[in-house]
Amino acid sequence: MTLKEEAHDLIEKSSEADVKKVIAYLSSKLPKKDDAKKSVDKSENVVIYTDGGCHGNPGPGGWGVVVIADGEAKEASGGEKLTTNNRMELTAAITALSIVANTPSFSGRKIEINTDSQYVKNGITGWVAGWKKNGWKTSAKKDVLNKDLWEKLDELNTSVKPLWKWVKGHAGVEFNERCDQLCQEEIAKFE
Question: Which one of the listed residues 61, 64, 116, 123 is annotated catalytic?
């Protein structure tokens, strides 16, 4: 019997004098304020933004990630001396999903990942299935570029099951802009 059904039954069977006792009893069955807050926090989405880039392609590159959960935004970033734009975009997404996979409090929560890379979004939500089916070959029968990173991303994507969204880059989207800033700071370390 649900709490609502139990409440209805008790109130139907009680006199006016007993209603206060019924309310007190039912109140004791409700989650405590702290328990309710924890429950709400657990059901909130984890929202992620990622970006990667290079100066020159190849050239010095960087990536940035912002993970928003439980009312906080946490950042991660890194870079490489000689890389490509696509490798940095993939590395950002891999890092973001690795953070999720290794954060126990994120378990069971909806994960939304926002990227300004059509390459990453289209690759992980569509192309990767065909590449795997074709032995990591493109439709033109060429080897898939960045296979090492695609395999890592595919494994994490299968485990975490995020919702992938594309956002327009350099369009004033706050956390996408922050990721770009982190990326540029990392690139500057190699120039």
Answer: 116
Prediction pTM value: 0.76
pLDDT digits (tens, 9 = 90+) for 103-156: 999 999 999 999 999 999 999 999 999 999 999 999 899 999 999 999 999 999
Catalytic residue among 52, 53, 61, 62: 52
108 belongs to the catalytic site: no
Residue 89 catalytic?
A: yes
The one catalytic residue in 53, 89, 123, 186 is 89
Q: From the candidates 62, 78, 180, 186, which is the catalytic residue?
A: 180
Q: Higher model confidence: residue 21 or residue 43? A: 21
Which residue among 51, 79, 123, 186 is the active-site one?
Answer: 51
Query: What distance in Å separates the CA atoms of residue 33 and residue 41, rounded to the nearest whole number?
Result: 12
52 noted as active-site residue? yes
Q: How far is CA 38 from each of CA 41, 44, 129, rounded to the nearest angstrom?
A: 5, 10, 37
CA distance between the termini of the chain:
67
**Is 170 among the residues known to form the active site?**
yes
Span 70-113, pLDDT tens digits: 989 999 999 999 999 999 999 999 999 999 999 999 999 999 99
